[in-house]
Specification:
- The protein is an alpha+beta fold and about 425 residues long.
- The protein folds into two domains: about 170 residues, no CATH class; about 190 residues, Nucleotide cyclase, GGDEF domain (Alpha-Beta Plaits, 2-Layer Sandwich), CATH 3.30.70.
- The protein is about 60% helix and about 15% strand.
- The protein has 13 helices and eight strands.
- Strands 1, 2, 3, 4, 5, 6, 7 and 8 form an eight-stranded mixed sheet that branches.
- α1 packs antiparallel against α2, α3 packs parallel to α6 and α9 packs antiparallel against α10.
- The termini are far apart.
């Protein structure tokens, strides 16, 4: 480029390179050392930047003078880039510091040339650009033009920085909101897990999904209820150690609960060794389906208790456990029952009473159902007549049926 102009000051270029390149190497070495020392310490990083900016401009100052302080000057573009990067990467304070250093050093050198304090060093010695250096007014105009360039670049960099900061702030708020929602969801899941240990999972899910207290509503609906009780539990309480008794009961209740959940039953309560499970609330699936699910659940529980006989003996029960089960179907009242500060979500009505009274009438290892249940499961679960039984609290004998141990047949919906 300089060879095209016979009057180019090539010696100035040589002096510029001799000063500028080593100065830049030293600056980058100091800057790298400062950044490595800073690590995560933001204040030291910023302090290094406050020193780097004027040092970076000072290393370029010889080039401004030796190659020509007025246009065309590549160092002007270099200074502009520094100001823009500092403004966007850091903040307004450090950006203003970079702008002041750039304008002060660049415009200050031009003013010194205009005042003839330092000699003018134009890049070219001939051609139209020589006229720029021959007039102080033109040089002042050029200085103002350079300052205007910095002002425009500052405004654009500020706009970009503000948009970047706004986006960064919005992203932080979004992340904070997501973190809050995630914590709330995790907390809700933890509460749900704890709640499901004390109430039926179906009821817990409805309580957590709805703002209204669904359990407080009472309504009449068809249900099927099962009562199960261990035979010989009272003598076992007197015979075995409390710790052994707890282990046996917990193992028994674990299996009953698992099977009840698999069939969609709502565990109402554990009373000593007794278990009450009902179908039809809080979610109803139809009278027939509810009765079939309940009876199949009862058969599964009996089979599982029989399979775990040896395990119960090893736990200290003394003998395999035998279970009696009674099942009743019909319309009952479902909802919250109890006092103002303590209530239970349960079912109350004739089918509950029949199931509770049928249970002690059942043979060990057997399941008795009332006439209503037998009618609902006919064709789906095999039953056989057990005859009429007299139930406490009922004025007339009740027809009872025993669930057969034969395999269940396919559920027919017709």
């Amino acid at each position: 480029m300089f060879a095209r102009d016979a009057g180019a000051n090539l010696a100035a270029v040589d002096r510029f390179l001799a000063i500028n390149l080593p100065a830049h190497v030293a600056l980058y070495a100091v800057n790298a050392w400062a950044l490595l020392r800073a690590g995560d310490r933001v204040r030291r990083h910023r302090a290094a930047a406050w020193l780097d900016v004027p040092l970076l401009f000072l290393t370029s100052l010889p080039g401004l003078w030796l190659l020509g302080s007025v246009t065309p000057n590549l160092n002007t573009v270099f200074f502009v880039i520094i100001v823009a990067v500092v403004r966007v990467y850091y903040d307004a304070a450090l950006g203003l510091w970079a702008l002041a250093c750039a304008v002060g050093m660049h415009a200050g050198l031009i003013l010194l040339e205009v005042a003839h304090v330092v000699p003018s060093q134009p890049m070219y010695r001939s051609g139209p650009l020589q006229q720029v250096y021959s007039s102080s007014a033109t040089m002042l105009g050029a200085a103002l033009w350079v300052i205007a360039i910095y002002a425009v670049v500052w405004a654009m960099a500020s706009y970009v920085a503000n948009r970047y900061r706004a986006s960064e702030h919005a992203l932080r708020e979004l992340n904070a909101g997501l973190e809050t929602r995630v914590r709330e969801q995790v907390s809700q899941l933890e509460r749900a897990a704890r709640l499901k240990r004390y109430v039926a999972p179906q009821l817990a899910d409805q309580i957590l999904r709805s703002e209204a207290d669904l359990a407080m509503r009472r309504e009449r609906r068809p249900v099927t209820v099962m009562f199960a009780d261990l035979r010989g539990f009272t003598p076992m309480v007197e015979r075995v150690d409390p710790e052994v008794l707890a282990n046996v009961l917990n193992r028994y209740f674990d299996e009953v609960s698992r099977i009840a959940f698999e069939h969609g039953g709502t565990i109402d309560k554990f009373i000593g060794d007794a278990v009450m499970v009902f179908f039809g609330a809080p979610e109803a699936t139809g009278e027939r389906d509810q009765a079939v699910r309940c009876t199949r659940m009862a058969l599964a529980i009996q089979r599982r208790v029989g399979e775990l006989g040896e395990e119960f003996v090893r736990l200290g029960a003394g003998a395999p456990l035998e279970l009696r089960i009674g099942i009743g179907s019909g319309t009952a009242t479902v909802g919250s029952f109890g006092a103002a500060h303590r209530s239970d979500y349960t079912v109350v009505g004739a089918p509950v009473n029949r199931a509770a009274r049928l249970e002690p009438q059942a043979p060990p290892g057997g399941v008795l159902v009332d006439e209503e249940t037998q009618a609902l499961v006919e064709g789906a679960v095999a039953t056989e007549p057990h005859g009429e039984v007299t139930l406490k609290g009922f004025t007339k004998p009740v027809k009872a049926y025993r669930l057969s141990s034969r395999a269940d047949v396919e559920l027919r919906t017709g």
